[in-house]
């Protein structure tokens, strides 16, 4: 396992982090085994959030007795001081700890959300107060708009930033990572499989592993998945492989969707998932989870072409800050059901 100094925090963190978002979907004993195996194998970065159902409680129940062995990161999705502070206090109780190593202001994608969180009665000041009291060590920010995150972190108010970085979403390389480096921040990459679309797993993991980040959090739910993710990082990425991975990322990222979720579909198509998986589906094929997504989404994707209000001007495209051809991509995805 590779370790590196997590920006100006001074902590040494493992190159692979344990993303605990999906643990509520498996039996407690399976979650317990996965988390403890991860710690046994040297993973020391545990990522969760107050909004991930009972993920924090699972961490408290299964590994709080090993608290000194891991760097603990959680998140609040609230924007105001009062509810954010209450949530941070609940997180401490749920995870059975006196201190959260990293408290992140979570899912900040809109300018108005950032402004609200940074007001004097905002969530940032709740985190700052808890830091001054010794219950939070560092404050971070997460989001899906890398160019906005680059702007927001430039004032030096955050210790860490969490962002998408995978073969289908390489966009953080352009502005965000360079700005984080200028600020001396911890850099956490998430969604190496882009939510279960990218295969093979080893290739997917090795792309963000090859980039300038401190830790890559992967949403693991079993000992087998932890073992598979660790195996992908056993060998360093050489120059030739890195060049190949970066070329593939340019190809798979040509959809240009950041998953900012500004768009919405009147017939219920999960547009970002279709956009991001479009190039993956054509080039690499999909993981079983990705195929399951398309199976569930079939009726909605097929309905897109017949939805009358969108025939003249797609309603989803009006909301996209990147002006992407979403309707065209969704309708092209209907071919999945012909070729399957």
UniProtKB/TrEMBL annotation:
<dbReference type="Pfam" id="PF00248">
    <property type="entry name" value="Aldo_ket_red"/>
</dbReference>
<protein>
    <submittedName>
        <fullName>Aldo/keto reductase</fullName>
    </submittedName>
</protein>
<dbReference type="InterPro" id="IPR023210">
    <property type="entry name" value="NADP_OxRdtase_dom"/>
</dbReference>
<dbReference type="InterPro" id="IPR036812">
    <property type="entry name" value="NAD(P)_OxRdtase_dom_sf"/>
</dbReference>
<dbReference type="InterPro" id="IPR053135">
    <property type="entry name" value="AKR2_Oxidoreductase"/>
</dbReference>
<dbReference type="InterPro" id="IPR020471">
    <property type="entry name" value="AKR"/>
</dbReference>
<feature type="domain" description="NADP-dependent oxidoreductase">
    <location>
        <begin position="16"/>
        <end position="199"/>
    </location>
</feature>
